[in-house]
Design goal:
two-stranded antiparallel sheet, two-stranded antiparallel ribbon, 4 strands, single chain, 324 residues, ABC transporter involved in vitamin B12 uptake, BtuC, 14 helices
């Protein structure tokens, strides 16, 4: 009986985010029947696209026990530069290429400072956070940039009836999932996250792995920024603020460990993203006080992290007792 009870608790612990996702859908469906409509579910997917792309990149960094606080600033700088380029008459494809290069350069800079100067990721990416935000404000003169209609096609266009943001989201998540589960690079990411010293002794180039994950994160931040501004239609001076925390929250809700070496993009991070977006969408549908949004999201994060902490304590206890 105790074994069955233990197995049941372990199953709940392992699937806590999925269960919360189901509870959120049921609760908002009861409070607002319109929430359960197919159109609203589609809207949630579209609204989650930018955050999903951003959180995918963040997952790679978190798996190595790192963190990237600069992603919101990369989004902002990428949005400002691409917006000004298109407004000045540059082709959309050229602006998009420049944005991708910006994301890759920031990723390289973060990685080089981390493994060359041996500075912790929190400090490095906090510095590049201010660099990106400052450059964006300087280039935009702290003014909003209204985007032309041609730019908005990225946010509103469809292929075979499927919105482009959703296509981009699932393309990025599928590619990331394959990289993490089917490639040597992906296995090495988990190895570095578990123990970088053991990984180095095993012949893994830890510096190369760090460079790879931060470049991927920078690329996803730039791409996520493009998708977000194409949906908004403008780049405001506050664009991208706190996006890094939402990306981290989504990954953690999806089961990614801040200590590295554990978690996945699919279904983990994707479920975390959808849970956050479902809560925000549901609160809008039931006309809740906007000031409650961050408080409710924080409560959900605390709950999931608490469950995860209890699970880790049980694992440690089992190890001490010599159990599997």
């Amino acid at each position: 009986m105790k074994q069955i009870q233990h197995s049941g608790l372990q199953w709940v612990s392992n699937n806590s985010t999925l269960l919360l996702f189901a509870v959120a859908i049921a609760l908002f469906g009861i409070l607002s029947p319109a929430f359960l409509s197919f159109q609203n579910a589609f809207n949630i997917l579209v609204q989650a696209a930018a955050l999903g792309i951003l959180a995918t990149g963040m997952t790679f960094v978190l798996l190595t026990a790192g963190i990237d606080l600069s992603v919101g600033s990369i989004m902002f700088l990428a949005g400002v530069i691409s917006g000004k380029m298109v407004v000045d008459g540059a082709p959309l494809w050229w602006a998009g290429l420049v944005v991708v290069v910006i994301g890759l350069e920031f990723g390289c800079l973060n990685a080089l400072l981390i493994y060359r100067l041996k500075v912790i990721p929190f400090i490095v990416t906090l510095a590049t956070f201010y660099v990106g935000r400052g450059l964006g404000l300087f280039i935009s003169d702290t003014r909003a940039i209204n985007l032309p209609e041609s730019f908005l096609t990225l946010g509103s266009g469809k292929v075979l009836g499927i919105p482009l943001p959703v296509i981009l989201l699932f393309f990025v998540i599928t590619l990331a999932h394959l990289v993490l589960t089917r490639t040597t690079f992906g296995k090495h990411i988990y190895a570095v996250g578990h123990d970088p010293e053991k990984a180095r002794k095993a012949g893994i180039s830890v510096n190369r792995i760090l460079l790879g994950v931060y470049v991927i994160c920078g690329f996803c931040a730039a791409l996520g920024g493009l998708v977000a501004i194409a949906q908004l239609g403008a780049v405001s001076p506050t664009f991208g603020l706190q996006s890094e925390f939402m990306a981290i929250a989504a990954a953690i809700l999806g089961g990614v460990s801040l200590f590295g070496g554990r978690g996945n993009v699919f279904p983990g991070t994707l479920i975390g993203v959808l849970l956050i977006q479902t809560i925000q969408n549901g609160l809008v549908m039931v006309n809740a006080d906007p000031y409650l949004y961050p408080l409710i999201t924080a409560a959900v994060i605390f709950l999931v992290v608490g469950i995860d902490s209890l699970q880790n304590q049980r694992r440690e206890k089992a190890k001490r007792l010599g159990l599997k």
